[in-house]
Amino acid sequence: MMDKTNFKITKEEYENILKAKEGLIFIKSNDATININSVSSIIPENLEEQTTGRLHDGTRVIKKYGKWVLPNRDTLKLDQSYYPEIARDEVMTEKEYQIKKIGFKKNEIVQPTKNDTNS
Predict the structure, then answer these.
(1) Residues in contact with 34: Cβ distance below 8 Å, sequence separation at least 6, in sequence order
(2) Is 70's pLDDT higher than 90?
(3) What is the average pLDDT score of the chain?
(4) Is the per-residue pLDDT at 69 higher than 50?
(5) Would you list the domain boundaries of the chain?
(6) Which helix (H) or strand (E) holds 116?
(7) Closest Cα to residue 97, out of 57, 48, 68, 44?
(8) The whole model's pTM is what?
(9) Of 10, 105, 112, 119, whose CA is between 20 and 30 Å from 43?
(10) Which sign does the torsion angle of CA 52, 102, 100, 86 carry?
(11) pLDDT at 104
């Protein structure tokens, strides 16, 4: 909020805020109506600073003094035009990279059925 008011919202309310492009949204859990344009940020309660990650090409990086660098080569400057995720501070976590690399989560792998293997 513009006046820096903080309050907790439900996941459903969070999703409604993200869907709304403009206008007023009623936040039932707080009995409040907010103008979408006055929301400055939405931060999860359990927010932890990400200190390791992977770039789009699989390069491992660490965050040192607020900047993404190569492990053991922190003096080497990474090209932000080739790695725009560094400029945006949107480096993938190891888990996100593995999901992207494989294309799906391990628990989503469909095992062939008996009928599939006999055809």
Answers:
(1) 1, 24, 25, 27
(2) yes
(3) 78
(4) yes
(5) 9-41, 52-105
(6) helix 114-118
(7) 57
(8) 0.49
(9) 105
(10) positive
(11) 58
56 — phi, psi (to 5°)?
-60, -25
How are beta strands 52-54 and 32-35 bridged, if at all? unpaired
Residue 36's SS3 state is: helix
Tokens of 68: 């993404």
Which residue do the tokens 């707080």 mark? Answer: 30
CB atoms closer than 10 angstroms to residue 54:
20
User: Between the CA of residue 107 and those of 92, 97, 101, 110, what are the distances in Å?
Assistant: 20, 16, 15, 8
- Bridge partners (DSSP) of residue 46 are none
The CA distance from 41 to 106, in Å, is: 33
Task: Tokens for 115, please give them.
Answer: 């009928």
User: CB neighbours (10 Å) of residue 34?
Assistant: 21
Among 68, 63, 90, which Cα is nearest to 79's? Answer: 68
Strand partners, 33: 26
